[in-house]
Amino acid sequence: MTSRSKIVTAGLLGVMALAAALTATPAARAQAADPAATAAPETARPDAAGPADPAATVEMLLRQIRTGRARETASERARLARFVAERDRRAALLAEAEAELAAARDRATRLETAFTENELDLERMESLLRQRMGTFGELFGTVREVSGKAASALRVSPVNAQSDDRVAFLSQLARDGTVPSVADLERLWYELQRETVELGRVVRFEAPVIRPTGETAITPVTRIGPFTATAGGRFLDYLPDDRAFLQQDRQPNGPYTGIARRFEAAAETGAALAPAVLDPSRGAILSRVVQAPDFLEQLQQAGVIGYVLIALAAVGFVIALERIVTLSLVMAKTRRQLRHPDRPQAGNPLGRVLAVAPAHWRGHATEELDYHLAEVIMKERARFDRGLNLVKVIVAAAPLMGLLGTVTGMIQTFELMSLFGAGDPQLMAGGISQALVTTMLGLMAAIPLLILHALAKGRSDTLVEILEEQSAGLVAEHAALPAPGEQAHAAE
Asked: 244-247 and 202-210 as β-strands: parallel, antiparallel, unpaired?
């Protein structure tokens, strides 16, 4: 072999070795990397340092290439088989899903057709029902309307505390859109008739009563129709949700609680007739009466001006009554003195006037006697009129103070209106109450005091007139007497 052929052969061997190294398995690569470890031992040649046989090396490389290709072909076939199996499985799933979709679409079409047919049948049947019912449709509508109104009215009725489920029945009958049965109509008539009968009954029964402290106790309750309910002389409010009665802490003023207590006693003993408190508005009027303020609350609404008016009125009443009693006693003593003018007594004003005349009867002029009598009468008049001027001032000042309270209350009302507006009447109630209550108190103080002042002043004037008449008689009698000089001349 020539040198050129050896070079070509070596180049081919290098290319094939490179290809084998790239495609061989790891074991082949290891064998190629260490051919001495896997190659069979050969007989040593004399020329061991010479080059290896190219034909043996190429044959080994070819065997390795065929082995690698066979392995790769087997791997590719296995992978292709797996791919085909997966494709077939997914194709089967797709076919199954398409079949289910087709079945669902078919079912939806059938249901839609059935729904349309049912709607047509329903409209046809409703039309036939309306035709057959005729005027009964209006009747059943009236029944439902009456049932709804009756349920609303009976729900708040105290009679419901003794009944069962009539409110639930009436509410169900009002909401039900079907044709009511004969039994339902008969029961509706029965419940309305029972409520009508209860309007005129007085019933005593035991029911839960909620105290103002929050405690609930079973208490005997006296009910007058559906209007008024009492327990222990206390008026009760009916609570529909709890089917119990509530005793309010604040009760009506006046004789109402006493009348209720006596009526309960009469109902317990079975008396035929007894006075009672009846609220035809079923609690509305009674709640107004309960909310009405008493005298002390009105006085608190009047404020400082109200207290001042009460104090002035009290002082005026005391003075006026004291003057009337005192002058009445003086009048009685004076009339007794009139029956005995010859025996003047110092314990009455007429006796004191009559006692002045003998001391100035002789040796004094008539004018001097008249002056002395006038002086005594003036002193007595001062005693008669003591305190009446203060009563007169109170009579004049009381309405003015009431007017002052009115102005103050209106100012307060307008201030609240400027701050909060006029939308809430309760905000203005305080100022309006002060304005009205003070005016009322002023008039209540002035009018009676004016009458008492007139009575006391009349008695005082009557006493003064009696004294002036008697003093005028004394002066006239003294003037008719002769002078002292004339008496001596007549004696000579």
From this structure: parallel
For residue 247, the 8-state DSSP code is E
Mean pLDDT in the chain? 77
Answer yes or no: do 467 and 416 share one domain: yes
* CB 481, CB 353: distance < 8 Å: no
Instruction: Tell me, yes or no, whether 232 and 142 share the same domain.
Output: no
Q: Which of 6-10, 58-62, 98-102, 250-254 has the lowest mean pLDDT?
A: 6-10
Per the structure block, which two tokens stand in for 482?
């002769």
Radius of gyration, alpha carbons of the chain: 64
CA quadruple 389, 392, 393, 398: dihedral, nearest 10: 160
Same domain, 111 and 158: no
Same domain, 117 and 252: no
Q: Which two tokens stand for residue 250?
A: 């604040």
Considering the domain architecture, whether residues 413 and 316 belong to the same structural domain is answered as yes
Band (pLDDT 50/70/90 cuts) for residue 492 is: very low
Reading the block at residue 173, the tokens are: 């009958």
* DSSP-derived 3-state class of residue 203: strand
Residue 32 confidence (pLDDT) above 50: no
Please give the Cα distance from 138 to 131 (Å, whole number).
13
Lookup: tokens for 188: 């509706």
What are φ and ψ of residue 49, in 5° steps? -80, -5
- CA dist 394 and 388 (Å) reads 10
Query: Shortest CA distance to 441 belongs to which of 307, 293, 244?
Result: 307
Q: Into how many domains does the chain fold?
A: 4
Return the bridge partners of 202, or none: 224
Domain extent, residue 144, equals 136-198
Whether residue 216 is found in the same domain as residue 181: no
Same domain, 164 and 229: no
For 59-93, the pLDDT digits (tens) are: 888 888 888 888 888 888 888 889 989 998 999 99
User: Does residue 179 lie within any of the structural domains?
Assistant: yes
For 33, 70, 349, 352, 473, the CA distances from 334, given in Å and listed in that order, are: 167, 165, 7, 10, 16
Distance CA 357, CA 471 (A): 9
Residues 352 and 413 in one domain: yes
